[in-house]
């Protein structure tokens, strides 16, 4: 950790999320964006030059720099564990895109490394910083809807995502890629302990296109106290759908209900070619600056490092999401209820 009042930041990954991480770090008044690492190096170079930073195609070079205190990790889902562990061993605080890992064993190994290193670490479950989602948590905590007893969450994407946006869709599933955010939120809202999961998945369209992964997954999660949540993920919506993601959450309590529908985020645009609802919650550009939930999550971990605070998203809660998804995928294979490990 540098002794200056500003934090040196490195970004690992230069895709859509890494680009957002870099913009958020570069504009934070308490941080300096020092370097970007990515393969291929051309992506790192382009992003780094935009912000006057250095670049490399080897993240280990970035981790060896003494002027970097915090790294943001925005690599494909299945590549998180090794990079996060290397960052912790190098003494670098980190924030990693969701999910923490795609294996519960890897999550436990990584958490042990982080605890031994003493660094601050957080998964970027940035939906907790979306104003309406944060307000829903406050409403639930205040008892406005009584005790949560049931939840439903869906996050469904256009087919563009697994066929064009991601080159590694076959290395993941819509549940890992999409439901991780919703599972984090549902666990946050329900405030209980998930015990077991049963899931059903469909493989059809994407397999026929040469991408061996699920088209859609639905799962039911049983919590302690008899509470239940259903999560749904699908990424074969037609590209004509007006938003990239169809996202909805419902929380039913003993005394009320909360609906969170993100289909429309205040802006509607009609043109000759389409009717669209631009997404504004996660990473909008406002007056030339990166804002939204992603930037707020990056700002939060920077403040935690500089002020010795505790991250809102704990490693234990991130492990819980991975544990649910681990049981969910075990259920896809077994066809039966699977208890969380």
TrEMBL record:
InterPro entries: Gfo/Idh/MocA-like_OxRdtase_C (IPR004104), Gfo/Idh/MocA-like_OxRdtase_N (IPR000683), Gfo/Idh/MocA_Oxidoreductases (IPR051450), NAD(P)-bd_dom_sf (IPR036291). Residues 139-337 form the Gfo/Idh/MocA-like oxidoreductase C-terminal domain. It comes from the Bacteria. Belongs to the Gfo/Idh/MocA family. Signal peptide: none annotated. Residues 8-123 form the Gfo/Idh/MocA-like oxidoreductase N-terminal domain. Gene3D superfamilies: Dihydrodipicolinate Reductase, domain 2, NAD(P)-binding Rossmann-like Domain. This is Gfo/Idh/MocA family protein. Pfam families: GFO_IDH_MocA (PF01408), GFO_IDH_MocA_C (PF02894).
